[in-house]
Design a protein that fits this description.
The protein has 15 helices and three strands. The chain has 264 residues and is mainly alpha-helical. It has a three-stranded antiparallel sheet. A hairpin with a 6-residue loop joins strand 2 and strand 3. The longest helix has 22 residues. The N and C termini lie far apart (71 Å). 16% of the residues are buried. About 4% of the residues have low confidence.
Length: 264
């Protein structure tokens, strides 16, 4: 019953089918006779009013999760096309969900990102900018939601306050730095930060050269936010060498040799 009522609220075609032939439209659902009668007795005018309200609230929530992704989508597609994409997502999410609420709702941002990836793979959204924005914001938001990432960030900050780092020879030989799970590095095909800045300022989407760009994502300790900064290639390679096995001296030596060879 819950799935049927939810679908009536988000699927215009299903709602129209129900108004025309209620029993036929509900054949696919395993309903008891009592449940069937209860659904047929619904105040459909109230359902329609609620549907309009629900669509507006749901759209606002989805856009809050992936603001730049949606801004770009709305700047490149027609309003009707964007509405169709959201309606289809809402219908698919209900059809595939085992429950409404709880853990199912907490995982909705990941399902939304996967839905967009499917549209990209099917060629329904062709812009490479859109794919890059999606991955940037999906990673940021998933780090903000992950309680384990938050705990690691908090623990890291607490332990850092207890330790005084001194770059003595002994320290460089014995200390083995490690990049915690509250930190991620991702490569992008474009300078995503410039694109996001333009979208936030509501400026025209800039033409971006296809140049490898590395972004460092990290969870801010004792905060719900995750931050992201563009980094250069030497820093990216240095951080990736921090695996908890190599000493500071080993890491610095390897980077030094690498770039000495490159410059030579």
């Amino acid at each position: 019953m819950q799935s049927v009522i939810a679908r009536l609220c988000v699927d215009v075609q299903f709602r129209q089918s129900f108004l025309g032939e209620a029993e036929k439209s509900l054949e696919q659902y395993d309903l008891t006779a009592a449940e069937l009668e209860n659904i047929k007795a619904l105040d459909m005018e109230a359902v329609q009013d609620y549907a309009l309200s629900l669509l507006g609230k749901k759209s606002a929530l989805l856009k809050k999760w992936l603001p730049s992704t949606f801004s770009y989508l709305e700047s490149t597609l027609s309003p009707e096309r964007v509405r169709r994409i959201l309606r289809k997502y809402s219908l698919d999410a209900i059809a595939e969900g085992d429950e409404i609420g709880g853990e199912w709702v907490r995982g909705e941002s990941a399902r939304l990102a996967e839905y967009f990836r499917e549209l990209i793979a099917a060629g329904e959204i062709e812009s490479p900018y859109f794919a890059e924005l999606l991955e940037f914001e999906a990673l940021t938001f998933s780090m903000e939601l992950d309680p384990e990432v938050s705990q690691v960030a908090t623990n890291f900050a607490a332990e850092s306050k207890k330790v005084e780092l001194s770059l003595t020879e002994e320290f460089q030989q014995n200390f083995t730095p490690i990049m915690g799970t509250h930190v991620r590095i991702r490569e992008f095909r474009f300078e995503v930060a410039a694109l996001i800045e333009a979208l936030e300022k509501k400026e025209p989407v800039p033409e971006l050269a296809e140049v490898p760009t590395w972004v460092l994502f990290f969870k801010i300790p004792n905060s719900v936010k995750a931050a992201a900064h563009t980094i250069n290639l030497p820093l990216k390679e240095l951080l990736e060498l921090c695996d908890g096995k190599m000493s500071v001296q080993d890491v610095v030596s390897l980077i030094g040799v690498r770039y000495a060879e490159a410059s030579g």
